[in-house]
Amino acid sequence: MNKNKEQLLNKRYKAEKRFRLYGQSAIFMALLFLTVFIFKIFSTGYSAFQKTWLIVPVTFDAELMMLEQNPSKEDIQDADYYDIALKSMADLDPNANEDQENELKRMVSYFFEKEIKNELLNDPSLIGKTKEVYLTASDDLDQVFKGNYPRDLPEDQRRVSDYQLKIFDQLVANGKVESKFNISFFTNADSREAELAGIASSFMGSIFSILVCLMIAFPVAVLAAIYLEEFAPKNRFTDFIEVNINNLAAVPSIVFGLLGLGVLLAIFQLPRSTPLVGGITLSLMTLPTIIIAARASLKAVPPSIREAALAMGASRMQTTMHHTVPLSMPGTLSGTIIGLAQALGETAPLILIGMVAFVNTIPGSPMDPAASLPVQIYIWAESAERGFVEKVSACIMVLLGFLITMNLFAQIIRHKFEKKWS
Amino acid sequence: MTEAPHTVKSYEEELKNLNANIIKMGSACEEALGKAIQAITTRNSDFAEAVINDDEKIDKYEALIEQQVVNLIALRQPMAIDLRETVTALKMSSDLERIGDLSKNISKRTLLLNENLPKNLVDALNRVSASVQKQLKSTLDAYLERSAPMAVNVWEGDEQIDDLTNLCMQEVIKYLKENEKNLDDGTHLLFVTKNVERIGDHTTNVAEQIYYLVKGEYLEGDRPKGTEPIVSGEK
Amino acid sequence: MIKIKAKDVDVFYGKKQALFNISLDIEENQVTALIGPSGCGKSTFLRCLNRMNDVIDICSVKGKILINDFNINDKSCDVVRLREKIGMVFQKPNPFPKTLYENVSYGPTIHGMAQSKQEMDEIVETSLKKAALWKEVKDRLHEPGTGLSGGQQQRLCIARAISVRPEVILMDEPCSALDPIATAQIEELIDELKKEHTIIIVTHSMAQAARVSQHTGFFHLGQLIEHGSTDKIFKNPDNTKTQDYITGRFG
Fold first, then answer.
1. Which of A275, C121, C184, C195 is deepest in the core (most CB within 10 A)?
2. Which domains, ranges and CATH numbers included, belong to chain B?
């Protein structure tokens, strides 16, 4: 009898140990996946925050620029830079033939003309003089410089010719290649050229979508939650509504995308590809999440508070507005932020309503066409150029940063207010 | 007591115990009184000494009951019937203790008497004593039965005791007047008679307590009184 | 003088009857205690008096409850006005999670009882003084009320209840969550308050009912078994059920 008991006790302790081990290994696995994922993203993405510049001497030859004596600002603006730009590049190798000159030109981005122009606009006194100008290297050379490009491939399989590499190596040897923080990644809109592509458009697109989503979903959801929780009679009809709100939260997001496409674009004729439509679609998706969070936090307000207010002679409306709703706000707000964070990461519905279109301008309002961060990731991931690979990871990093900030914010709100009122 | 027992069994036990002690104390008093009366009427000093010795037992009962009552009040906070039960027990015990004391006093005086007493006087003393004994017995029965009517009977019977006491007093006075030598014994006998009457009063007190215990209210009206005591020379 | 007169009050929760034919008179400026085992309907009856049962959808009240000869179950009775006149203190201290000042000033604010900040300050001060809390909290009126001890919180709730100068104060087991010292303070307060208010208190503690009340009503299974002076109920109740309950003999 006693021995049996001891055996049983041992068995129970062993079972407990085993269970703890399972739990620990599960957490270990999860952490492992996360680390691998983050390591992968960071190791491929960090280089996107650096940009390679070629330092090229440019002679601002007034004649080649078709400029007269003492040109006005407008004249400089309208001047022709193509020739001096071309000449500057060609001068890198005085012995180059015409084909080679073309190859030299392709060592920098097609934006090089503008970069030279900006230099002169900043300092008009440069006319007739020579100055070393920073020119954006082409995405392929950028990758070569970052060491991401396999140089030992046969020449016909890579986009950088041996000749380009030779000149590039010379420049590197002369210290004429420099790597700097990639500001344009944050300030440029999308571009077909990887070296010029930035996230400004999609970032603003995401922000506008989230704002529209917040402005629509939050008031509607909170009002719905308050009504259902505080005022609606408990009967079959409200039960039915409750079940359907929960169902709505489980509907796949692509269905909302189709709804946006079919209703907002087709029937209401709202402008395609805009954060407005994106935001409305996302708000449909976020609505049930916020309603559920708001109802839960309204439910969590102790009934004793309601009773206290009612017994003081407050009307139902006063009880709700003076006490219940303010007390439920921290929960509601953090629920809202988590809902918005979900919406922020949503891709499928935005693709359906056309926010996947190539947008090379930065949107100034929710009515302008824009992409969004997750869609941008999708677009870049589809692109063939090697330069976009690191951009995808960089964009993921930005998106993750955004989400973490929002969740942190939600936590802070919850903590700050709950401490004060409980 | 109501039929339903207390939820807390030890409380129930304590009340029962208190009850039992009151009854034991009551019978001890009954015995003391009986023996004291027998001692004086049959001039039996053994009985008288037994009463004197047994009084200690009665005093101990009183102390025990008092302690139990204080404990009950402090620890159980009795309410309603239980409260009356406890409070009544306290008051009853002090009345019973007085009965014991008075019996003892009678016995002490018995030992001091030397002459044979006239038959008339002994008869009168017997009558009043028997009546008081009967009263005390009925009172204890009323307590056992928790009977208000029985208590009222006792209460009303006090009148008769007063009358019998007066008759007995007259006999003692007569005895005193007969001879100067009777002065010592007569004085003792006066006190004995008075003591018997006092026992009757305490018994009536107990009966009142029982009435309160059962009914929760006090007996209304003045206590019945017998004829006024007769002063010597009158008549 | 009779302040509240309940006449044949029945209460139903859905189909289940919770109170049967309750008739009870409550004296003005006295404390009436309602006692009885859990679920006997004493709290339900208390909540009839300020119509807190309205909050429960399935609860329906029949019969008359006359307060100052006015039937509060009448359709013409305005619940908000009624609850201004009849304050309530609950079992668990439930101060609003706001400052002490806001807690006490809430009632006067919603009922528009103060014209100026000064007037409001006065109301808050007198209410807290009457609730015997002023000395302890006068320096921290703008700290959250939830930071007080349990007993202080309950006194804050009493201050909140009396801030609108109700005629009647209902107390639903106000000391059940408090320690004996805090309980004694509340009981002392009840004694003070009955000079200006009619008080009805539901309590589980027989000793408390005996200590604070002048009248006691005993409820059992939804019926008012016995009511009368506290003296009588605790020394010599008429009904054996009452006796069995208060002496601790309940089967």
1. A275
2. 9-215 (1.20.58.220)
Chains touching C by CB (3 or more pairs below 8 Å): A, B
Q: Which of B3, B6, B81, B82 to mutate to test the interface with C (most CBs of C within 10 A)?
A: B81
CB neighbour list of residue A61: distance below 8 Å, 6 or more residues apart: A84, A87, A128
| CA distance readout (Å), A195 to A383, A386, B95 | 13, 10, 115
Measured between CA atoms, the residue of chain C closest to residue B12 is: C249
Q: State the smallest CA–CA distance between residue A322 and chain C in angstroms.
A: 10
Instruction: Identify all chain A residues contacting C164, using CB atoms and an 8 Å cutoff.
Output: 312-313
Chain B touched by C243 (CB under 8 Å): yes
pLDDT value at residue B181: 80
B10 backbone dihedrals φ, ψ, rounded to 5°: -65, -30
Contact A309 C81 (CB under 8 A): no
For the stretch A181-232, pLDDT in tens is 888 888 888 888 888 888 888 899 999 999 999 999 999 999 999 999 888 8
d(CA C227, CA B131): 44
Tokens 């054996």 belong to residue: C240
Of A307, A322, A421, the CB nearest to C94: A307
Of A308, A315, A422, the CB nearest to C80: A315
Q: Where are chain C's structural domains?
A: 28-50+78-246
Q: What contacts 24+ positions apart, CB below 8 Å, involve A76-80?
A: A76/A120, A76/A121, A76/A124, A77/A121, A79/A117, A79/A120
pLDDT digits (tens, 9 = 90+) for A9-37: 999 999 999 999 999 999 999 999 999 99
Whether chain A has a CB inside 8 Å of the CB on C92: the answer is yes
Tell me which chain A residue has its CA closest to the CA of residue C111: A313
The CATH superfamily label for domain A200-421 reads MetI-like (1.10.3720.10)
Q: What is the pLDDT of residues B78-105, one digit of tens each?
A: 888 889 999 999 999 999 999 999 999 9
Q: Which of residues 189 through 218 in chain C touch B, CB cutoff 8 A?
A: 206-207, 210
CA distance to partner chain B, nearest, from residue C33 (Å): 16
Cβ <8 Å between C107 and A420? no
Distance CA A47, CA A392 (A): 11
Going by the DSSP 8-state scheme, the letter that residue C99 receives in this structure is B
At B82 the three-state DSSP class reads helix
Nearest-by-Cβ selection for A311 from C81, C88, C111: C88
Q: Do C234 and B83 touch (CB under 8 A)?
A: yes
CATH of C28-50+78-246, picked from 3.40.50.300, 1.20.1560.10, 3.40.718.10, 1.10.10.10, is: 3.40.50.300
Burial label for C48, CB within 10 Å (0-12, 13-18, 19+), is buried
Across the interface, whether the CB atoms of B80 and C210 are under 8 A apart is answered: no
Beta bridge partners of A131: A58
Chain B residues inside the 8 Å CB shell of C206:
79
Range list for CATH 1.10.3720.10 in chain A: 200-421
Q: Are the C-beta atoms of residues C242 and C34 closer than 8 Å to each other?
A: no
Kindly tell me if the per-residue pLDDT of A84 is higher than 90. Answer: no
Cβ–Cβ below 8 Å for B79 and C247: yes
The interface predicted TM-score (ipTM) is: 0.89
Per residue in A339-382, pLDDT (tens digit) is 998 898 888 888 888 888 788 888 888 888 888 889 889 888 88
Identity of the residue in C96, C97, C164 whose CB atom sits nearest the CB atom of A313? C164
Chain-chain contact of C94 with A323 (C-beta, under 8 angstroms)? no
Q: For position B44, what pLDDT does the model report?
A: 83
The phi and psi torsions of C191 (rounded to 5 degrees) equal -60, -40
